[in-house]
Amino acid sequence: MNLKEKLNNRGITLIALVITIIVLLILAGVSIAMLTGENGILTQAQNAKDETEKASAMEEVQLEALGAIDTDGKINVDRLIDNISKNLNGANSTSLGNEVVVEYKGNKYLVEENGNVIYWEGGETKANAPKLVKGMIPVKYNVESGNWVICSEDDPEWYSYTTEEKKWANVMLCDGTYDESTAIGTEVAEKDLGSMFVWIPRYAYKITEGYHEASGALDVKFVAGTSYAYSDSKGNITEAKNGNEEGVITDTGYTDYVVHPAFTDGNKYNSFDNGEWREEIEGIWVAKFDAGIKTTEDDTSAKVSSSNTADDLYYPIFKGRKFGYNYVNVSQCYDISQSLDDNGNPYGINSLSNSHLMKNSEWGATAYLSISKYGYSEGSSSKEKAKNNLRVTGVTNPNNTGEITAITGYSATTGKASENSIAYSSESSLGNSVSGTNSQTSYAWNNCNSNSDEGNGTLSSTTGNIYGVYDMGGGLADYISAYVNSGSSNLTTYGGSFANRTSNHLSTAYPYNPVTTDYKDFNSGYNGTGWNKIFGDALWETSSGTGSGKAWFGQTLEEDGSSEEPFFPRGGYWYTTGTVGLCGLYDDIGFAYSNFGFRSVLVVE
Known about the structure:
This protein is an alpha+beta fold. The chain is built from seven helices and 32 strands. The relative contact order is 0.11.
């Protein structure tokens, strides 16, 4: 073999070697990737191991949950936490209302109320599910037909307390065409509706701007069950406070979130001074409209037969487009509301519904949810909902005590609209839109845009859509089960059923420590001492003082000093402009008159 041939053979060998090395490197890279990459064998093996350990830990938690279920099919939270502490080494458990968060072997699990266990990666606490009692029929709104539809309490479309949907839960009672035996899916025309109530779930709140000023902002956190706990999007669990705790509410504002007093136990906290209930509760049912009275043949005309109420008073109707129930004094409003769950009532409810006249705390609970990101104002007093400014003339009250003035469930286009007056001639007068004084137009509560739950008629709703509470600005000013404990003779004359006593779960006595000689009324109570300790009622903490434009939304806490006016009509009436709205107040002596009505609340314990 000559030299040239030797060189050629050697060159081929080197090239082959290089190619071989390159191929081996490629194969090695592929092998490493198969072993260690995102979908590699080793990674998948580790993932499988992690999932197995995670599932195994979940099974251990599930076994403890099954051992803590009571005869009612729900977990005993305290027993579950105790069992986990004893049996699962290294586990940490935290109560989240009726549920428990368990951190175990590097993972978090949520034990639901029924004992089911799921993986948990956090999330803001959801609103408590509505609590039902006999006579309550869940209803949802069909945007296509414009009717309400009977649904089950498990229907995922019934409610959604989110910032996007603002769909508060609604029920109707059995004083309409249908009752609890009516088939799910039945569409209910407006004339067939029963009295309607809206669920206000338990929450904690914090005034973030404008505490005791003329404008401001607040934030709401839903709390779980009857607890004080809420979680954030990362799964961090925080305990809200109660307003009696030292340092929580200062002279300049809030340091922590406070569970609203309407949901807390006055036996444990504050001696009911802030309008607390008699135990911790998950939410309240608020009448969707001001109380109305028989307007059409479809409405009940049943009279209240309770022994502490005059026989000539009628059961109210909580529906839209009804004559407002006026010419009842504050004591009668209290008695009528107490009688809603009496035997033989037209609604089908029983004593477990705990019917009563709305308290200032319950007004505040509804108002604050409306002001929050879950309601119309989206967190700030810069966005004011509209008022109900519709007045009718020419109709005599069924009690022959005066003239009907207001109509429930109508909306102007703004919160400061002046009176829109019409002469009533027939039921058809109360159309979907009604023009009257100064060519103004008022819109019926269910006047929605096509295929929508919003429209001109929903501007006065607490949510800005059809799911909220109406007539909390205008209509009739609502008498409230609260009073300034001033010793005024009007407390006995007009509020004899509940006034002149200490606070309890059904009524609230406000402190009276005036700094000057006065008229024993609301104004001197507010301007005295002690009111800065009251929270949750949309008065002191959402205003800078009594007088014109001193409350959030530019509303007014009336300051007249003309007589002894210890009672709290809230929201203003069809005529007023300054006092109208969620934070406004028109104080009064408590007598029966054309401007004043009421609203009832149900509590399912």
